[in-house]
Each structure stands twice: as C-alpha cells, then as structure tokens.
Amino acid sequence: MSRTTSLLSPSRGIARLFFAGREQAVGPARVGAFLEESQLRRMFQAIGGTYDLQNRILSLGRDAGWRKTLTERVRGRDGETVVDMATGTGEIAIAVARRYPGVRVIGVDFSQRMLREARRKVDALPLETGRRVELRNGDIRRTAIGSSTADVVTNVFALRNIPERAPVLAEFRRVLKPGGRLFIMETTVPSTPAVQLLYGAWLSVIMPFLGNVLSRTDYAYSYLKHSIESFPETPQFLRELAAAGFIRPRATPLSFGIAVLFSAIRGDG
Q1: N or C, which end of the chain is more exposed by having fewer CB within 10 Å?
Q2: Which domain holds residue 224?
C-alpha cells in the first residue's frame, strides 16, 4: 500500500508526457474522465463480442492472472452467495463458481450485450456448475438484490466508469451481510516512475490504437486512459471505503501497480 505519491508530484513529472489530459471525439460528445450512461451503454454494446479477446491482448495476458488472484482471495464457503457487480461477460462469476462448488453466484450488469456473452459461457459449463450462476440485468447503483443477501461482493474494472462512487459503495454495503467481504479490482496509474513511463506509453499511444482497431470503434480505448486516470489514488480510495462503512480496507498492488486489488469487510453498523 505504498502508492501514495501524487500523480503530478515532481517525482512523477516525466509521466506528464503521457498522462496530460486530452480529449477524443465520441460522436457529438467528447471523451473525458467519464462517459454519460447512454454513451457507456453504446460502448459496451459495440465491444461486447470481442471484449475478452481485447482484454487478453491489451493487458498482455495479465488480466487472467489478476482475476485468478481475486478468485483465490474470495475463499468461498459452502452455502455462501457471491454477487459479482458489473459482471460483464461473466469471467469472475464463472471463475468463482468453478473454484467453489458449494457457492451460489449472482452476476449483475447493465449491458444486455455483455450479459449475452456471459450467458453463452454459462450455458457451456457443466450443469452442476452452470446452475449455480444466475445472471441479472441491472444497475449496480441500485440493484434489485435484497439487503444483507451476499457473503461476498466483487467488482472488477468497472467502478472507474462511474463518477458517483459513494452511492455505489453504499449499494455494495447494503447487499452485503454484516461481516461480508468486498473485493474491488481496478487498473491504476503505477507509482514507480520507470514503470509509469512505460505504462504511460502503452496506455496513451499503443493501446488506444490497437484497442480501437480490435473493438471497431474510434473511442472505446481512448476513453480507457481517461477513466484510469480519473480513479483515485490508493490512499484516497481506502478512505472512501472506510467512509462508506467498511472496516479493514486494504490494497494489494498487482503487476507493479498497474492493477490494485482492494478488499474490505462490511461493518456491523
């Protein structure tokens, strides 16, 4: 949990070459730190069919290892319920169901296109695994899941797309049982200057071009850079978790800080 240096501090000044704020066109709107909800829906509608392939290529295969780390940290027990918020194509929901045979999994996502990909994967699972995965269309800011339903809530590479994080964290807390475990994974700006420089070049130049080609859009992966930059630094987000009523908030950097796995426990209050 050492990522405490400000993005714009002198020690990180070299990264300004790549992490200076820029905007890209998205139809009539502009790409900034956040897209409007309608724009997000269109984006995920456009990239849903090749989303997994894009992630593998553009993370150089690291995303699979990051998800494996999260799945291992879940430590699901027989009879527990795991809710995967913004499940996307179902990678985490399916990984948890496979690893923990006694766990029920609910995956929630607002994109019908992404859920169709998730459903295709679930239908291909062995019956005893697939029947424990339920997919629901919904907004993670206000789900239809009952209060104190989940033993575990997971959220991967999604929170950075939402400017109003406090209501989302409040919803995660509502859905969790007292003592329930929360795991949030996000890609972030690494703190080590050398890694930051290399990652900045990848994120600013190579990935937008390659990602937009793969996704057949002219903005999806240009936007990704802005959304990563907009996510708070680790100490700030740990404070946000505490303010939302979670205890023992912790952060585990992955791949030199390119991604961070946050964990916390819902307090009893």
Answers
A1: C
A2: 10-266
